[in-house]
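Question thread 4412

I'm putting together a teaching handout and wanted feedback from people who do this every day. The idea is simple: show students a protein as raw sequence, then show them the structure tokens that encode its fold, then repeat with a second protein so they can compare. Below is the first pair exactly as I plan to print it.
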Amino acid sequence: MVSAVLAGGAVARAQPTAAPLRIAYRAEAGCPTEADFRARVSARLRRALAEADAASAYVVTLEKRDGRFVGRLGVRGADGTASDRDVAGDTCDDVVAALAVVTALAIDARTADAPAAVAAPVAAASASTASAPPRPAGSGLARSPAPPPPAGSARTRPPAPAPAPDAATHLTLGAQFLLGERIGTPAFGARIFAEPPVGATDHGVAPLRFGAGLETASDIPVAGGSAAFLLVALAADACPLGATAGALHLAPCARVEGGLLAASRRGVAPVRSVTRGWLAIALPVRARLPLWGPFVLDVEAGMRMPLLRDGLLVQGADVVARPPPLEVVSALGLGVTIP
């Protein structure tokens, strides 16, 4: 009788063991190991693993591109469905942590299918119990199946925040307010810009930028009256180097500008005006700070050197106005990163 009770208790404690997750993990040297990744995923799960979870495969790859780490999670379902998610970051550990969260969410999202998966082992256990010989009376308490996980538990969990888009690997559009100097007098203007996703950098600033701007200055004193200037120019920036201090990204840039500079002279009769070609190089330092979601604050300041310094207002053979050899330029703007 005692041995029968012990045998019944042993059967009652036997539980089906869930198969381990099917994870294919490939990472650069120095990145967290596969065991560390599995531990991070398990720590973020809201439920115990079931046999049905082993039907899906999770493919994790991590590699370093242009000084940054890029990770990808590929989920391959037993029904043939497939989905991929990419994450980029400054360190491999940050990318692995983000992929662990995404993987745990993908596993928890399958809780809606859990009742069917749990029902199969219970039904199999019932069938084996029915085919087994009847136990003697009083051999032990009847075993009751473990309750299924609460329905909707995965739906009530708030989703993890998505990583902020990397401005250096996505298209960024923006506008700037310009403040500079024109022959000793403040000049104001505006510029629109676009940063194509040509490649990532290790300092969070796009390596290339193209822009179109307009600057104006008026009431500039010149011989015999005053002058007003209007500059319309296209610009191309290159920012191959930089540094990062927390969320702030800094980069020195080189810029080439080309366009037209128009000037008009007032206070004398007749009013004189002239238009000249404009070509200049500039060396601004750009600072970028992520604000919220896809929005970034863009600030820059530097020096500009006009290469064409022909006289703008000519009276007889006397040059009335000429651009200075160096000009101060600055800008404050807002950009939006488009995934």
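The second pair follows. I'd like the answer to focus on this one:
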Amino acid sequence: MRLPLTLSWLLLPLALSAQHTPKLPLHQQEELSFVAECTTAAAAQTQLMLQAVGAPTGKNYPRTMSNSGRLVTTGKYDWTPGFFPGSLWYLYELTGDSQWRDRAKQWTETLAPLQTFTGHHDLGFMMYCSYGNAERLAPDSTYNKILVRSAQSLATRFSPRTQAIKSWNYRKAWDGTTEWFYPVIIDNMMNLEMLFYASRVSGDPRYRDIAVRHAETTMKNHFRKDFTTYHVVNYDTLSGRVLNQATCQGYSDNSTWARGQAWAIYGYTMVYRETKDPRFLRVAEKATTAYLKRLPADLVPRWDFNAGMKGYQPEGDSYAVKFPGTELKDASAAAIVCSALFELGQLTGKRKYTSLAIKMLHSLASPAYTAKLGTNDDFLLMHSVGSIPHENEIDKPLVYADYYYLEALARYKRLLEKE
């Protein structure tokens, strides 16, 4: 097992904080200690990751682990490079240690060229998880400008005909014949936060208008009557009408992919925060109810709620035809929902959401899902699923699982400190 050269600088801010904390109720003290312990473990593991990847090159953003147990990194044009810098920002927020801020800035600033990227919809993940946290925790006029320029780039993928932001470019469905010329995926809800930010700081309402219209269109076409979600909706580029409701990463077109449902919960919670429109709150709560009723006892979902069930059938070249992975969990979905429920609880004043978020966080922090120091290729959480249909990242760590886990820890810490 590789150990960091020193842990003293990781532990010092937490120790100093504890010395100056006034006397608190026992339960609150215990939970703050829990957050501190999770933070210390995450900091130590991430220090090992930094040693493993070296200085940022624009080509070495941690993403996952290969089947042979090797660290997999990506270049900046993958959809995931913003998560590792974002995780470093959350460690800075959780510890107050300037060394994490300096590392976060270093990794974030390598993504600046992406501000003009228009190749797919994930610019919110790429830039807001990195530069958005940078602007929040270490404001800089350069960061502000980069985020607004990034929003301009994302806005180019919006069509007045479909009233939605195009997620991917042309591709075919798993049946090998159905063509998707304007696919929009539920994940796209997560990219809207950067558009709201851009309108707020620039004074230009166009970005907010696009975000609201996209949320309205998704609300109409991505949800079933029980508020479970389709992963993909394909639109006609001329008329804007819906052509297909399908999946790309879920088990089957009519199944409920757990992470897709998680994106919906988080996305509509965020849109309600930005708009205070009760329509969006209703969707967030209904989607949450649909998700919660399908959870196992440990509150970490199976990768797809319908995998292997009668009436749900993958097709074509999807690897799920051969390997349904019926018992595989997805810790990434749990981390996303955990973070979202902390915010939903605050926005609604409903303690039930906060209580569930706390239970989810404790489950994720348990040995069942949190890796031991020096294992798991230095990622924090074990047992996520990237995409079984693509035969990719099956029961592996994922950088975005770690990001939303740390965000949930930071949100819980803020909540405890307010009580």
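Top answer:
Good format. For the second protein you could add a caption like this: Residues 25-418 form a domain with the Glycosyltransferase fold (CATH 1.50.10.10). The first strand starts at residue 61 and ends at 65.
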